[in-house]
Amino acid sequence: MTQPANIFSYRPYWAARFGVSPFLPMSREEMDDLGWDSCDVILVTGDAYVDHPSFGMALIGRLLEAQGFRVGIIAQPDWSHADAFRALGRPNLFFGITAGNMDSMVNRYTSDRRIRSDDAYTPDGEAGKRPDRSVIVYAQRAREAFKGVPVIIGGIEASLRRIAHYDYWSDKVRRSILPDSKADLLIFGNAERAIVEVAHRLAKGDKIDQIRDIRGTGFMSQGLPDEWFEIDST
């Protein structure tokens, strides 16, 4: 398992020549204003886009931008069809998917399983701007929008559901979120070092299914990779 390199040790990606954007673009018009013909990375989040480090996706977006990548944001998209996920065009490297700062089920429901009347991470506190199990829904829509683009999931919802887990809302043990979301890679925890490593390796031409050696990542495998061993969890 590879320990990711120091975040600031990478050579900046060529798109660093575009400089720092006032805000990460959320539309083609904003991309045009920056002189971009495409995004290298598109981040999809269940929260409103607030350009502040208390919002995880904004933090990750700015971190990737500091590495030279062109990063776009799709915030609280309409999940009823894939069109909203095509708003910024096809990303050159990957889609990054998160439910937002909170697990979407905790965000939408009280402990009595009643739908909440507001959402602290949406303008004006408006409720209903994200789906149940947002990571699964967003990842599937991103895959539908642009087939063949790697889909990477992360954030608190994906991190806590990376293995089989008890799901309070359905009162069942659910399997890992990976097969349900059909994501190529799950990055759990804070993820700064891992996401930078993944982005640079994809930019160098590595395939997403070749990236199997970075700490803090999870993925589906049909067999046990070479030099790996299984731990009995019973």
UniProtKB/TrEMBL annotation:
InterPro entries for the chain: UPF0313 (IPR022946), UPF0313_N (IPR013704)
Chain ranges of the UPF0313 domain: 23-222
Single GO MF descriptor: metal ion binding
Protein name (record): YgiQ family radical SAM protein
Keywords on record: 4Fe-4S, Iron, Iron-sulfur, Metal-binding, S-adenosyl-L-methionine
Taxonomic lineage from the root: Bacteria, Pseudomonadati, Pseudomonadota, Gammaproteobacteria, Chromatiales
Superkingdom, natural source: Bacteria
Organism: Candidatus Thiodiazotropha taylori
Pfam families: Radical_SAM_N
